[in-house]
Amino acid sequence: MTVTFKSILIVSTVLISVASADFSSFITPVTMSRYNFKREKVDTEFNLDDKDYKQSLVVLSFPGLLLSIFLMLLGVIALFLRNCITCGRRNKSEFEEDETPGADYDTGSIISEYQPSKDGPTSILLKIVKFFVFLIIVTTVVGAILGLASNAKAGKDLDNFFKNMNIMANNARKTSNNLVHAFAGKTDITKTILSSLLPLTTEMNNMTQTTHRVLVEETNLNHLRESITIMGYIIAIITCAGGIFGVANGKSWSFMFLSYLSLLTISIILLAMAMHIPLSAASSDFCNSLDQYVDNDVKPSWMKKWINCETDVSISDAVEFSQGEIDKLLKMINLFSSAYTNKTYTTSNLLTLKLDELRAVIPIDQVSLFDSKFDAKTIPVILSVPRLQNMAKCQFVKDYFNYTRNNYCGEVIENVNRMVISEILIAVIWIPGFIFAVIYSKDKRIINNENNNNSNNNSNNNNNNDDDSQAHRSS
Ligand SMILES: *[C@@H]1O[C@H](CO)[C@@H](O)[C@H](O)[C@H]1NC(C)=O
Ligand SMILES: *[C@@H]1O[C@H](CO)[C@@H](O)[C@H](O)[C@H]1NC(C)=O
Ligand SMILES: *[C@@H]1O[C@H](CO)[C@@H](O)[C@H](O)[C@H]1NC(C)=O
Question: Is the pTM of this model over 0.85?
Fold first, then answer.
């Protein structure tokens, strides 16, 4: 009994230490060669507008996809053959019995069926089989936990990346719109400023729209990816339960059921892997392009479509002029406030100013002048001056990409790679699991004939008490 517990500990420890390894260096889909459909080599520069690049990502999903289909076919053939062997046997000897494969007479446990021979090899084989089932289950559970945790993190990071980009663009849009609002009809040369600012405000509006569209698309794709991934892991866990049930129950139909389940697990898990390899490669390419932009100022081609960061002289001029005008607004506020409330303001304490209170203490004949210059948006506009220059130079985009690269890139890639590892682990371990299930769903008949009711009292055996019962019987 303690053997099982000890081996659980050992296997879990091994798997957990595997799980905590650094996967971004262990498996690196990004280093895989990229080919388009014509088998020409493709550059790894991230660009979803490039047909060849998109094809190369699709090609990266082929190993998982083809393996999934291939194993599915192979599995179906194996199941078919298994049925054929059974029907061949049916003709020979067991016609009646085989009509009702799950019937009640069928109470022998798979494990006990091997025991009556009482030979060394059988009991060793039995132990190996049991250990193997146990290994599959522990591996699957650890793999699924690892995969689900990584999936949650990667999914959140991917969503947040695009969410933050949309928020960033939206803030910039608000800043530029506030600026326009603050100038509208308030200075002599407003028309000139507004027309010069127009490219900037249009750009910020466009950026908000584009990032929003990208966010919606990404969220949908990510949800689809998450659904398939989670479904794969859940089915893998269900298959484990099916495995435990099969060993405990020992009837051929439960192994038949297990073989279907394990085939499903292998296919869906490999399908999820087929998605995650290109995702990992694309994330890595994307992050490389962020590096190039932040460190070397090389603008990636995808950026032109999302965010137009061409520096425009007329925008810079307009922003410079706006800054001068905004400085004038602050001076004017100080004229009023120092005269009537004995206070002066800078950008550091401007938030403490209450325009209503100031308006209340100024002489009545100056109120209309005051109203023409200031309103609720004046203070935010004055405070946004540092961001204006930032916006004109598109520095805020660079800062955002720098932040993203530092905080998301490594984590997303590592978590996606972890999922790939866990998927390979689960798919690989269930291939012999499937074979095992197919063999036992058939094998049962052969043994059942020889020792029909010999082992009825062992039908509820499980891994723990089996050793005991075996000892009991042989004595
Ligand atoms: C913004 O989008 C409009 C149409 O959606 C387009 O005509 C315009 O050129 C874009 N402006 C900038 C600065 O990207
Ligand atoms: C206002 O300023 C004058 C002269 O600078 C000073 O004498 C006076 O104490 C100030 N009043 C308040 C309430 O701070
Ligand atoms: C990127 O961010 C890091 C950490 O915040 C900072 O040290 C570095 O100077 C930034 N690089 C650029 C080009 O802004």
Answer: no
Which strand (E) or helix (H) includes residue 28? Answer: none
| Any atom of ligand 1 within 6 Å of the Cβ of 206 | yes
Could you give phi then psi for residue 312, rounded to 5 degrees?
Answer: -115, 125
Ligand nearest to the CA of 312: 1
CB 407: neighbour CB atoms within 10 A?
14
> How much distance in Å is there from the Cα of 205 to the middle of ligand 1?
9
d(CA 412, CA 415): 5
Determine whether the shortest distance from the Cβ of 406 to ligand 1 is under 6 A. no
Structure tokens at 415: 């978590």
Q: Is the pLDDT of residue 233 over 90?
A: yes
Does position 441 have pLDDT exceeding 90, yes or no? no
Tallying the residues shown for the chain, one arrives at 475
202 lines ligand 1 (CB under 6 A): yes
Structure tokens belonging to residue 285: 């390419």
Cα separation, 141 vs 238, in Å, equals 10
Confidence of residue 5 (pLDDT cuts 50, 70, 90): low
Could you tell me the two tokens for 273? 């892997």
Q: Which ligand is nearest to the CA of 341?
A: 2
Q: Buried (b) or exposed (e) across 452-462, using 16+ Cβ within 10 A? A: eebbeebbebe
Q: Which long-range contacts (CB under 8 A, 24 or more apart) does 202-206 make?
A: 203/308, 203/315, 204/169, 204/172, 204/173, 204/175, 204/176, 204/177, 204/391, 205/173, 206/308
- What distance in angstroms lies between residue 204's CA and the mean position of ligand 1's atoms? 10
Helices 385-392 and 120-183 cross at an angle (nearest 10°) of: 110
Q: Is 407 in the pocket of ligand 3 (CB under 6 A)?
A: no
pLDDT range class, residue 181, cuts 50, 70, 90: confident
For the chain, counts of helices (H) and of strands (E): 17, 0
* 227 pocket-lining for ligand 1 (C-beta < 6 Å): no
- Cβ–Cβ contacts within 10 Å for residue 360, how many? 10
Quick check: CB of 83 below 6 Å from ligand 3? Answer: no
Q: Alpha-carbon distance 419 to 192, whole Å?
A: 56
Distance of alpha carbon 388 from the chain centroid: 35
